[in-house]
Each structure stands twice: as structure tokens, then as C-alpha cells.
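Exercise: predict the structure of this protein bound to adenosine-5'-triphosphate.
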Amino acid sequence: MKKEFAVIGLGRFGGSICRELIELGMEVMVIDKNEEKINEFANIVSHAVVGNSVDENVLKSLGIRNFEHVIVAIGLDIQASILTTLILKELGVKKITVKAQNDYHEKVLKKIGADHIVHPERDMGKRIAHHVVSNNVLDYLELSDEHSIVEIKASTRLDGHTMMDLDIRARYGITIVAIKRGQDIIVSPQATEPIKENDVLIVIGADSDINRFEKKVMS
Ligand code: ATP
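Solution:
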């Protein structure tokens, strides 16, 4: 069944979400106060509307409360982002995701009941920092302030070793949840599975434990 989404704000972030949702076969309505932006998307979405989202009547007349999920991707105008979120909340929208510009913005969004707050620039910055610090870290996903999932490329040091002989659980307190080997993926690998150089290990654990493991595997 197709889900119905509304994206407010068609900057790079909102535009990219919109295109991906369409790609995934979803119904998307877009709203932007900039007519040029709307024209850019008018051919690919089910409904494209030029309008100011801080105007409650605009959102009401579009039946915004019937959408399953509304994404507020207004960037620089923090006031408009907050006011839009507040109106969506008051109109009874079930799920609201909002892009935050900074920590203060996030605090307010939390207070007024945004369901999901994202910081694309900050999060991407963190991921890239991990990658540039260690060539072996291919990707990084923060689960909480202290826990992450990390993709680590196995160096020659790990080649031929198994999780059992490396004693990964006991020594590092981390879990290898999957191994990517070329096109194959081994989910929940056995402790006796030999690791090969250039395997990509998908590791979950506390940041400090993962860091110790990263140092061990650095080539
Ligand atoms: P990105 O980094 O995603 O490109 P940004 O953080 O630079 O975006 P802006 O360009 O300020 O964010 O805003 C994103 C979009 O939101 C713009 O296309 C802008 O026209 C639209 N927008 C801003 N305020 C409103 C509003 N009140 N109602 C509708 N659209 C709005």
C-alpha cells in the first residue's frame, strides 16, 4: 500500500527526501513558498503547492492532517520551521520529522512534540570524520550518545583469524553482526568463520570499545 507523505521545503535536503520517496513508490505532496522550486518538482510528485507553511489556513486547506508523515525541511528560517511544526502538531498530524539547524532549534522542536529530529549536516560530518581518521572505517551510524554501528574494513592483521581466536566479544565487548564479502553478506556469522582481508565487518557496540577494535585492525 502506498503511504502518503508531505515534504515542506524543497532545499537540497527536502528535495533529496522527496526524490527518494518517489523512487520508493510513495505518494508525495510538496509545499514550498518558492514557485521555482515547486515547478522543478511538479512533474514527479502527486501534488505540488506554492504556499507559506506558517499560514495555518494553507496547511488546513491541503488536508495536511490526513498525511501519514510530514517532513519539515525548512532550513535557515528557524522561526518558520518551529511555527510550521507547531501548526502541524495542533492540526493533529500523526508523525512529524523536522530538520534542525542547531541544538537550540532541536530543544524547541522536542518541546513542541516533533516525533523525529534530524541533523543531516552534523551527522554526515561525524560519519566523514570517522572515515578520514581511520581508512578502515567505511561508515558510521550513531545509535545513541555512546553506541554505534560501524563498517570496518578488515586489514591484513585480521586475515585468516576467526572471531573466536580473536576473542572479540570478551576482549572488546563488541559484536560483529554481519560480514560483507564482495557481493555476499554473511548475517550473524559463526564465531568460527575465518575473516578475510578486505571483508567489511559490521560491528555494533559502545564507541570506546569499537575505537579499541579499530586501533587493533588499523592497517
Ligand atoms: P538545504 O541545506 O536543504 O538546501 P537550507 O538549509 O539552505 O536547505 P533553505 O534553503 O533556507 O534551507 O530552505 C529550504 C526550502 O524551504 C527553500 O526552498 C525555501 O523556499 C523553503 N521554505 C522556507 N520557508 C518556508 C515557508 N515558510 N513555507 C514554505 N517553504 C519554505
